[in-house]
Each structure stands twice: as C-alpha cells, then as structure tokens.
Amino acid sequence: MPSRYLNLDQLINLSIDASASGLPPNHNLLDSVADGIFAVDSDMRIISFNHAVEKMTGYAREEAIGKYCKDIFKSEMCRQECSVQKTIHSGESVSGKELDIFNKHNQPLRVSINASPLRNEQGDIVGAVETLRNLSRAVERKPYQSKYVFEEIYSRNEGMHGLFDVMPDIAASNATVLIQGDSGSGKELFARAIHKLSPRSKGPLVIVNCGALPEPLLEAEIFGARRGAYTGAVESRPGRLEMAEGGTLFLDEIGDLPLALQVKLLRVLENREYQPLGAKSPMKADVRFVAATHRNLEKMVADGSFRRDLYFRINVIGFTIPSLSERREDIPLLLDMALDRFNLEYAKSVRGFSPAAMRLLMEHEFPGNIRELLNIVEQSIIFCRNGEISAELLPESVRIADPESSRRRRGCPEEAALRAALDRFDGNRNRTAHEFGVDRTTLWRWMQKYELC
User: Residue 50 contacts by C-beta under 8 Å, 6 or more apart in sequence?
Assistant: First the structure.
C-alpha cells in the first residue's frame, strides 16, 4: 500500500503476538470487530475491507479491493449524497445515517453508517473510512415481544393486528396500495413490509418523498432526465421509476405531489409507461406502486387540489394506520423496544423509567407518534447517568402536559391495555402498577372493574 496511507496502513496491519494473545500471527484486529469497516482512497476505490463487511455484502475481500465502493454496496445513497464522498470533500465526519445496502445477491440489508476522513502524515485527506452497523440485529427480541411484532412493527393493538393479518395478502398482489396515517405513525415500515413479503422482494425498494423537492426537480427525480433536458443537466440521470425497475416504488407524502405531476403519474399507472425529461421516446415501467400520505385525500379531491382519477388509481387497496394516541397500550411496548435499541447504540444500560416518568409518558398525546416516542427515548438515554430515566430527563413538552388531558388519562385504561400489561408481566401486579405509574390499590380497582381478579 502506498506510504500516503500510513495511518490506515498501521491500523490494517496491526497484529498481535500469538504467543501473548493466543491469536494467529498477523491477526487483523479489524476482523475481530462486529461492525463492518472499509476504507476508500480519494478516487472512491476500496483499499480495506474487514470480515464483517464481507459477511454483509457477500463479497470476499479480494473481490472488493480496488473496486469502486458504489459497485459493492449498491445503495440508493451512492446515486445521491454519498457519505464517503461528502466526508472526503468536507473533511468532516458523517454519522447516524440509516440506509439500505444490497448484497451480492441483490438482497437488502438495513445499516447505520459513520464515515470519517482518512489523512496522511501531513494531514491531507487521502480517503475515508466508513463503519456499517447491521440494524436488523440491533434489537434482540425478548420472548414476550415475539407475538407483538410483525416485520419490525411492534403492537398489541387489535386494530394493528388486523392489519398484520391481511398484510401478506396485500403483499402477494401487484395492486397499488395507499397507506394513510399521521406523520410518524409508521407508514414507511408498512411499505417496507409489503415489499419484503411480495414477489418483488428481490428487486429494489425505492423511496421518493413527494414533498421534499420543488416541482421541476421532483419531476426529474421521479421520471429521470436526459443530458441537456434543462440548464445544469450535464449528464443523463435515471429517475426513481427506472431505479425501481422490477421492484417497488414508494411514493411518500403523495398528497404533496403538484397537480402537473399528478397527471404524469396517472399515465404511468394507467399505461405503465413514462417519458424522462428530454427523452425522445417513452419507457416501460415494471414497478409496483405503494403510496402514503398524512393528508385527507378525499377532502383534497373535493376542493380540487388532488385529482379524483389519480385518487382512485392509487387507492386500489387502502388502509389507515391508527395514531399512537388511539393505541395507548402500545406505548410501554414501544418504550421497551426503544430502550433496547438505544442502550445498544449508545453503550448504556438504562433499565427503564421511573413511575413518575412512565405516568407522564402514558398521559402524553404523542402528536409526533412513534417517531416522537423514539426521539424522546433517545434524548433521555443520552442524558441518563444511572439505571433509570427520571421525569426530569423527559422533554419539556412531555413534562408540561395539558391538565385536562392528564385528568382523562389518569382514569382507568381500556380493558385490552390492562390485559396486555398483566400478560406482559405474567400477572405481576407490582410491575404492572409501575408500568401505569399508579399504586397497587388503584390497579386492583381497575382489575375489579374488568373482573380480572
């Protein structure tokens, strides 16, 4: 390896004396790390590849060394904002991003990534190092969770379990699906489940947020553009439709799609063909469509901001995900899942929440749904210095609750929520009372009401 990679070279070739450690001579320490680690030079060619990343990608080290990293990982991010390239150009680390990579057999794997610049002895940036953590194993499922989880979606709620029951049937078809639900309620998780369970699971799942870009850029993003199609189009660029060929295209926040693009999308759904910007002829689309929105599309159709014909085209199969405030029995389960996840991520050992903290969380309305719950737990774990998250560590929005809401929430929970908690703790009343932030006497009264004791 050239001397300009001296810092990395020292790390890669770091070996341990077998007589002192029991490891073989020239043992590569990076192969003992559970996370995937690879490095690239300034041309984005791979110069290091540890054992964990071999397992993730299916490529042997010998196959990967010298290849462009985009040819090995085949991530959607490689075509957009590459973290490795960003850290090389900026000299700053990139951390905490989640994405799907595709292995040698085109199977997706969800990972979190951290990238840092690689410098030589003079301090010049000569490449980058990236670590990948396999998120599919980040949360070890506890025995009691197995019956409450479906494709990484956690719930005890009867309505949610009704959705779980029909999801394989929805996935098996090629029909367009419309998922409705509040922001943060888990629409993307359901879209991923539909793709994973479908006959198209070996193809790509490509996501486009219809509200993230202005109309001219969004059109090129979805349909693609040929060189010279508009100012700045110096090369042909595939759109998300082309990238999703043979797989699934997830149109998130389709209620934000401009009317002009609604017409073009309708043509794709009706004729299975589209025309990239600047192209001379149309292209065929072998794609399954899943759409999602937090908006009331029926109301938008009535006021003319969403096309009626497109609404019926995307709503061949439709369902609504209940908000977290409608399935409060899921809050303790989701909190526990989030504790496991962030304890692992931040190397903490937080056991749970104090009774006061749990009471506040059970009373909170969660306008941001599951996304808000995850943010609350992550923030609390970061600041927690002992084994329990106290009420003082919760965000102000949780601690300062609406008095009327608190009064309502302190009442007896629904029977299903109470049964679920008792089942979870094998009938242990102390732990169940702690879960709801009440004393044993209050819990006993609740159990009497539903004849559970």
Answer: 28, 30, 31, 33, 36, 37, 38, 61
Per the rule left: phi > 0, alpha: psi between -120 and 50, beta: everything else, 212 is alpha
> CA nearest 201: which of 291, 108, 284?
108
Q: What DSSP letter does each residue of 291-327 carry, written as one string? A: EEESS-HHHHHHTTSS-HHHHHHHTSEEEEPPPGGG-
Class of residue 63 by CB neighbours under 10 A (exposed 0-12, middle 13-18, buried 19+): middle
DSSP label at 388? E
How many Å separate Cα 330 from the centre of its chain? 19
How confident is the model at residue 102, as a pLDDT?
A: 78
Q: Do the beta carbons of residue 261 and residue 298 sit within 8 Å? A: no
User: Residues 192, 201: contact at Cβ < 8 Å?
Assistant: no
In this structure, which amino acid lies at residue 125? I
- What is the pLDDT, as a whole number, of residue 427? 83
Angstrom distance (rounded) from CA 313 to CA 290? 11
Report the alpha-carbon angle 209-211-216, nearest 5.
Answer: 100
Integer Cα distance of 209 and 431 in angstroms: 42
- What residue segments make up the domains of the chain, in order of their start? 3-134, 158-320, 325-449
Query: What CATH number matches the domain at 325-449, 1.25.40.10, 1.10.8.60, 3.40.50.720, 1.20.1250.20?
Result: 1.10.8.60
Give, in degrees to the nearest 5, the angle at Cα 10 between 8 and 15.
130
pLDDT digits (tens, 9 = 90+) for 79-112: 666 888 888 888 888 876 777 787 887 677 778 8
> Are 342 and 348 in contact, with CB atoms under 8 Å apart?
yes
CB count within 10 Å of CB 343 equals 17
Q: How would you classify residue 96: left for phi > 0, otherwise alpha for psi between -120 and 50, otherwise beta?
A: left
The architecture CATH gives domain 3-134: 2-Layer Sandwich (3.30)
Q: How far apart are the C-alpha atoms of 137 and 139, rounded to whole Å?
A: 6
Place of tokens 């100012």: 231
What are the residues whose beta carbons fall under 8 Å from the beta carbon of 419, sequence distance 6 or more? 450, 452
Task: Specify the 3-state DSSP secondary structure of 85.
Answer: helix
Indicate yes or no: pTM above 0.90: no
Query: According to DSSP H, which parts of 303-449 are helical?
Result: 308-314, 331-345, 355-363, 369-383, 396-399, 403-409, 415-424, 429-436, 440-449
- Token code pair at residue 240: 């998300």
The predicted structure's pLDDT at residue 407: 44
